[in-house]
Amino acid sequence: LPSDLGDVFSAVLFERGVRLSKFRLKEVEQAYFSSFPRACAVIPENMTWKREEDALFPGKSALRVDFFLPRGSYATMMLKSAGEGGVQEPRT
User: Fold this and answer.
1) Lowest CB count within 10 Å: 12, 70, 79, 85, which one?
2) In this structure, are residues 65 and 87 in contact, taking their beta carbons and an 8 Å threshold?
3) What is the pLDDT along the chain (92 residues), one digit of tens a residue?
């Protein structure tokens, strides 16, 4: 943390009677998350989308999107990227 932010953080902890040492947990130190190579770009497979009635907002439309991404890919990033380019009707 930048020093000024660290000072604020420390002050808030002190005001609430929380010691920083409480955040140092042996279980967390021993946790290990394996890593594996990831592709820098992937193309979604079996992608389909269709406009349908929105179940939460009657009279409105919802967009249903179905697709498959390989393990380690992030669907939220794919949807964000697709949204930036606009939505087009699927080609048939």
Assistant:
1) 85
2) no
3) 556 788 888 888 889 888 877 777 776 666 666 777 777 788 889 999 999 999 999 999 999 999 999 888 888 887 887 777 655 555 65
CA 48 from chain centre, in angstroms, equals: 21
SS (H, E, C) the chain: CCHHHHHHHHHHHHHCCCCHHHHCCHHHHHCCCCCCCCCCCCCCEEEEEEEEECCCCCCCEEEEEEEECCCCCCHHHHHHHHHHCCCCCCCC
Whole-number Å distance between alpha carbons of 72 and 35: 10
Mention every residue, 6+ apart, whose C-beta is less than 8 A from residue 47.
65, 66, 67, 68
